[in-house]
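Appendix C reproduces, verbatim, an entry submitted by the partner laboratory led by Prof. M.T., so that reviewers can inspect both the input and the predicted structure.
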Amino acid sequence: MLDELVAGTDPGVSPTWDALPPGVRTFLVDVVGTLMNVGILAAVAVLIAGAIVWGFGALSNRPGVGSVGVKILAVAAAVAIICAGANAAIGFFAGQGVTIFS
């Protein structure tokens, strides 16, 4: 049977929400969506702060401060990319789950 599974096919297994009270699934989806939006907005704010720190370090001839600004920019950019691509990553790995044992 595992040999018959192909990427993109439905293996017939789906999550059940029967044990939870009505409306909990919608609430959880809304909470996670809000957290992703807040994460993206926070990452953009930190990107701006990192650029300011980097510029301050470059203009004041303090390379240590400039390198901290660059690290802040790199981490904030990574967080923004991860938050923005969370849906695509979940969809990709859900599609790969079918092909794990084939």
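The mean pLDDT is 84. Additional entries are available on request from the coordinating office.
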